[in-house]
Structure formats: structure tokens, C-alpha cells
Write a structure and sequence with these properties.
heterodimer; A: alpha+beta; Glutaredoxin; 7 helices; about 10% strand; B: alpha/beta; Rossmann fold; Ubiquitin-like (UB roll); 3 domains; four-stranded parallel sheet; about 45% helix; globular; binds flavin mononucleotide; binds iron/sulfur cluster; binds FE2/S2 (inorganic) cluster
Chain lengths: ~160, ~400
């Protein structure tokens, strides 16, 4: 069995073999593998006894359930109005320059994907970004770059 | 804030003598009908945006005949400019749990779910820990109710109640036709109470302090207080619990930077109020209701950019299920861009306003129906900024 198959089986075991488990199962895969591969989607369909189209249909609806390969660290900079007013453009530009990628792209070493997001719920402390599940409010370009460096060092 | 804004401390107040679990234990000894009467008497209306009377919602669900019912806490908080639910979840989660369990007792449900937006995953660990303790506490005292957490995955529309059920059922977050309403057929097509985070905390506190203290706050049409999320051009952005029914000019006196040109009340889907209307605008159900989002703009801001941001937001977040909303959002966005570039005459804005009227009637859910709120209020009040 491939690691993906093992993972899917574990997640289905943990959450239950019903359609209502689909979201937690997909979320679990993304947590471990950073995106939903074709193999993973087919495996979920098999394990939950759903059509592959149903599984893909659900996955493709949600921003956080990516179906294209993503880096190990996913950076999402809030681009909604108050963060816009507080300078999200500079943050995105600085991160893009440092990582040498544009929004939507992944670095060659697969360590980082740079994305934007809609309001992250920290408008009083914008600009703000999520790196994976961690939130970083009150950003300056300096701070944003330092945070990314920390993640770049991390080899776990 | 040295002015006459009426600050309140109910939501975040910590009572050392009576824990939320103790409030729950005390409350479930009372007859369910009495609790409903108290909630109706308090005048509490939903704090998630739509403002439906909470006591009635519970009563309708209680009256449904079903073995299985559910209580759901809507913690999908995605309306731009809103961040109060995150703070409530972080600081007083037990008050949310207690409100859910009281609701479970009243309507006859044994399971509750918190639907937490994926953007708040960093809250999960601590929330789960507090929840495990609370669930254990309920078990020990013989309260037959268990709460679980479900996570979202980054879709604003899943805050719409029926889309949220779809998402919990492992489907695309596409809003359902209504009726049936959740009180009749919600999660798993069973009778369901779905309430906003803040609403549930108020139910706990009304059970704790009685409806009188709550009722004494606010106005006839907007009883009680509300947690406001204040952001934008203000020196004191943050979270404030204030009495409902305040005039907007008092709010601006307290929070503005002295140069406030407009306030967006109720988030991207709310209304934009220009300076000349501050004096006659009431924040509450009799004026402009809000889920709590108050975004302040000063004279350095282009209202074209503001509207453009909102329309981009709706274009991205529309679930795409119905044509008036899917195509309408795109056309509104393209339309103002075309007017700005001079490719369309200014009168084209009036055609776009008609489009929002169509969306209001023909869109399936609140997302498409309310795009006209920001659109018309910004076009009507800042027309010259959109054109030139
Ligand atoms: C597009 C859309 C998004 C919504 N998002 C939320 C949300 O994030 N949180 C919330 O409590 N209500 C949200 N609502 C309102 C819910 O549908 C529902 O009315 C509310 O959860 C009921 O709770 P309440 O009566 O306590 O306010 C949204 C509605 C729409 C149309
Ligand atoms: S109004 Fe928009 S968000 Fe709502 S169901 Fe229609 S397309 Fe989806
Ligand atoms: S606008 Fe960026 S967090 Fe709300």
C-alpha cells in the first residue's frame, strides 16, 4: 500500500465510513500531503463508497482543499479591504521577491506556495497572513520576511 | 473613548462565583418553556446578521416532532471586517458551550456542533481541550449533550446556514432552497437550531442574569448590546461591546480619526454611510443592522477602490450555483471598471443598479441578494468617485 492509501484508510477509520466524514478526511490529507492528488481523491472515493466525481466536486469547491501540488508551507496574505488599506500589496511584493515567485506559484524546492486569501478575521491588526495554520498579524515587510526565513530554516 | 458611547461588559465578563457549567446546571432545572419565554421577553435577536428572534427559533425547533435534532454554532465568521467571534471563542468558549447545551435541553437535542472556519484552525487545539473538559463536566452532572467541532475549508458562503449544513454533510457548500427552514430540516435534514457564536453567549448570559438586565439595554427594536469589530481608519481599532441603537455620529465621534468620510456598517454585504448621513443613522434593527463589522474610511480613501474590493470579494465567494449572482457579481465588477475607464457612460451605473435589483429578487441566498447593499449605497453617495 502507498503512504497515501495508508493515510486515507487511517482517516476513514478515525472519522467513520460515511459521507459526513468527507470533509475531515480531505482536510486530513491536505494537512499531511499539502494537496489532494488524483491518487488520494480516488482512494477516498473507494473508501467512502462515493463516485470520484462527487469527491472531486466537493474538494474543488473549497479554497483550502487544493487539487494542485502545493509547497510544504502555504502562505496566504489577506487581500481584503482593511488589509488592502494597511499595505498588503507591499507584503505580497516583498514575499514574492524573496521567494522569487508570483502569487499562485510554488518555489522550485517545493517549500513555499504564495497565495492570497479573503478576510482572515484580523482586520484590526492588518496586514496579516496565515502560514499553514499559524496566523501572523500586524505585519511589516521586515516582519513578514523574517517569518518566512524561520520557515525556510525549519527542516522538519 | 471619553464620549457618551455606552460600553457594556456581558460577553467577556468572567463571574468567579458562577461558571458557565454552573449556569447550565442551574438552567436545565427550569421548565424549557420558561426559558423560551425569558428569551422572547429579552428581545434577543440573532447576532449573525439576519436578526431572527432567538427565542422563537428555539420554540419552533422545540415544537418539531423528531427523535433527532441538532444545535449548531455558526463560527464561520467570514464577513469582511468581522473578527469578534474569534475573540469570543478564544476568551470565553465555555459560555458558547453552555448556550449550546441549554439550547439542546430546550429543543430536545443531544448533539451539538461548532462549525469553525478553516482560517481559525490555530484556535482548534485550545478549543478542543476546553471542550473535552466541558463535555466531561456535562457527563458528570448527568446532562445528556455532547458537543463536537467541525472545520471549514475556506469558503465564505458556508456561513450561510444551509450551505453550512451541506458542508457538514460532505458536500459542496451550496445554499439550499428555503423553505424548509433549518428549524424543520437542517443538518442531516433534521430540525436544527443554528445560532451565531455571540447569540449563544447572550443566551447563556440571559439565563444567568435574567431578561431584565438585557432588556434594559438598547432600544425598543434593538434590545441589548452587541460586540462590534471596529477597523479601518481609526486610532483604536478592536473589539467593543456597546449598547445597540446608537446614532452613527456618536460612534464616529468615539472611533473616527477626525477625518471620517464614510462608515461601512455590516461588512462587505452591509451599507456604506457617508458623513452627511451620520446624524440620522441608527445602528440597530430599526436603522442599519450589523453582524458587528464597522469599517471606517477617511478622506484619503477612494470609494471606487473600496467598492472594487467588495465586488472582487463577492465574485470570488459566490458559490456560482445561480445565474443572477454568478454572472451578476462579475458584470457589476466589469461594469464599474468600464465606467472608470470611460468605455461606458456614467448612466451605465444606473443599469448596473437595476441589475442589483434583479439579483435581490432572483438570487437564491443572502450573498447574491445583498450585493446591492454596498453597491447602491456607494454609487448613490460617491457617484463622482466612481466615474472620475
Ligand atoms: C453569505 C452568508 C454568510 C453568512 N455568514 C455567517 C457567519 O459567518 N456567521 C454567522 O453567524 N452567520 C452567518 N450568516 C447568517 C446565517 O445564515 C444565519 O442566519 C445565522 O447563523 C443565524 O444565527 P443567529 O440567528 O444567531 O444570527 C451568513 C449568511 C449569508 C447569506
Ligand atoms: S446567491 Fe450566489 S452564493 Fe447564493 S446560492 Fe446563488 S450563486 Fe450561490
Ligand atoms: S481584511 Fe484582512 S483580516 Fe480582515
Amino acid at each position: 500500500m502507498s503512504t497515501t492509501e495508508v493515510l486515507v484508510k487511517e482517516l476513514v477509520e478515525k472519522n467513520g465510513k460515511t459521507r459526513n466524514s468527507l470533509m475531515p478526511v480531505l482536510q486530513g490529507i491536505v494537512h499531511n500531503e499539502h494537496f489532494l492528488s488524483e491518487e488520494a481523491l480516488l482512494c477516498v472515493a473507494r473508501e467512502l463508497d462515493l463516485s470520484a466525481a462527487d469527491v472531486y466536486g466537493t474538494a474543488s469547491f473549497y479554497t483550502f482543499l487544493d487539487t494542485v501540488p502545493r509547497g510544504k508551507n502555504i502562505v496566504r496574505v489577506c487581500k481584503t479591504i482593511t488589509c488592502h488599506m494597511k499595505g498588503k500589496d507591499e507584503i505580497i511584493k516583498a514575499l514574492g521577491n524573496a521567494l522569487k515567485i508570483k502569487v499562485g506559484e510554488t518555489t522550485n524546492d517545493k517549500k513555499f506556495t504564495l497565495l492570497t486569501a479573503n478576510c482572515l478575521g484580523w482586520c484590526h491588526k492588518g496586514p496579516v497572513m496565515l502560514v499553514n495554520d499559524d496566523i501572523y498579524p500586524d505585519l511589516t515587510t521586515q516582519k513578514a520576511l523574517e517569518i518566512i526565513e524561520e520557515y525556510a530554516k525549519d527542516v522538519k | 473613548m471619553e464620549n457618551n458611547l455606552k460600553k457594556v461588559d456581558i460577553i467577556f465578563e468572567i463571574d468567579e462565583k458562577q461558571s458557565p457549567l454552573a449556569i447550565l446546571e442551574k438552567t436545565v432545572k427550569r421548565p424549557a418553556d420558561e426559558i423560551i419565554l425569558d428569551l422572547i421577553d429579552s428581545g434577543l435577536k440573532g447576532r449573525g446578521g439576519a436578526g431572527f428572534p432567538t427565542g422563537l427559533k428555539w420554540k419552533f425547533t422545540r415544537n418539531e416532532d423528531s427523535e433527532v435534532k441538532y444545535v449548531i454554532c455558526n463560527a464561520d465568521e467570514g464577513e469582511p471586517g468581522t473578527f469578534k467571534d474569534r475573540e469570543i471563542i478564544d476568551r470565553v468558549p465555555e459560555k458558547i458551550f453552555a448556550g449550546m447545551a441549554i439550547c439542546g435541553f430546550v429543543i430536545g437535542a443531544k448533539e451539538g456542533y461548532i462549525y469553525l472556519r478553516g482560517e481559525y484552525n490555530f484556535l482548534l487545539k485550545n478549543l478542543q481541550k476546553k471542550l473535552d473538559e466541558f463535555n466531561a463536566g456535562m457527563k458528570k452532572t448527568g446532562i445528556d449533550f455532547t458537543i463536537y467541532i467541525k472545520s471549514g475549508s475556506g469558503a465564505y458562503v458556508c456561513g450561510e446556514e444551509s450551505a453550512l449544513f451541506e458542508s457538514m454533510e460532505g458536500k459542496r457548500g451550496e445554499p439550499r432552497n428555503k423553505p424548509p427552514y433549518p428549524t424543520v430540516a437542517g443538518y442531516n435534514s433534521k430540525p436544527t437550531v443554528i445560532n451565531n457564536v455571540e447569540t449563544l453567549v447572550y443566551t447563556t448570559m440571559i439565563c444567568h442574569m435574567g431578561p431584565e438586565r438585557f432588556k434594559a439595554l438598547g432600544t425598543k427594536d434593538s434590545r441589548g448590546s452587541k460586540v462590534f469589530s471596529v477597523s479601518g481608519d481609526t486610532p483604536i481599532s478592536g473589539i467593543y461591546e456597546l449598547e445597540l441603537g446608537m446614532p452613527l455620529n456618536e460612534f464616529v465621534d468615539g472611533f473616527g480619526d477626525g477625518d471620517t468620510k464614510a462608515v461601512q456598517v455590516g461588512g462587505a454585504s452591509g451599507h456604506c454611510v457617508p458623513r452627511k448621513k451620520f446624524n440620522d443613522t441608527i445602528i440597530g434593527f430599526e436603522g442599519i443592522p450589523t453582524g458587528g463589522s464597522m469599517m471606517i474610511f477617511n478622506s484619503s480613501r477612494s470609494m471606487y477602490n473600496v467598492l472594487h474590493d467588495y465586488l472582487e470579494f463577492f465574485t470570488e465567494e459566490s458559490c456560482g450555483q445561480c445565474t443572477p449572482c454568478r454572472v451578476g457579481c462579475q458584470q457589476l465588477l466589469k461594469g464599474i471598471e468600464a465606467v472608470k475607464r470611460g468605455e461606458r457612460p456614467p448612466a451605465y451605473l444606473d443599469d448596473l443598479k437595476k441589475l442589483t435589483a434583479t439579483m435581490k429578487i432572483a438570487a437564491k441566498c443572502g450573498l447574491g441578494q445583498s450585493v446591492g447593499n454596498p453597491f447602491n449605497s456607494i454609487i448613490d453617495n460617491f457617484r463622482e468617485e466612481i466615474i472620475y
